[in-house]
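Q: Can I see a sequence and its folded structure?
A: Here is a first one.
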Amino acid sequence: MANFLFTLSQDDNEKATRCFQFAKIAHEKGQQVNVFLIDSGVEWADKNRDFSIKTPTGDCPNDYLPYLLEHEIPIGV
């Protein structure tokens, strides 16, 4: 089993979507996963934020973040 640390350092919808997507994929494949929010990436810790804004590929952070929360993936700030 590999250990993955995904770091999000920007308040950018597309980058947050990919970070959460890759963390979900790694976890689904049986890997140990942690997510860490730094710099302006800490804006994604705001529960009142709109997580449904679509990226150019049609997905959004809300497509992946609920999985991470449901599976209690550590998200550090």
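Q: Show me another, different protein.
A: A second, unrelated one:
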Amino acid sequence: MYERLFEHLLRYIHLEAGERAILLSHLQLKKLSRKEFLLKEGQVCSGMYFVIEGCLRLYSITEKGSEQILQFGIENWWISDYLSFENKLPSP
């Protein structure tokens, strides 16, 4: 289930078996449907997300009411509202 994540991590770091077990104990698989939100305005981001399949986008609504895309989370990469996550602040 987490093979892609570990393949990604092992490109950058070495993990002992015990370290891998510790990491696994802190991971949670989250499956979203098309058009479902991972995080909404006003919520505090609670994690960093590794995209196993599909594509996610982080966007804001401009003063004129149009969507402005800030990030794409493509397969085998990360996405998060990092400022909300790190500072425990509501996401704009």
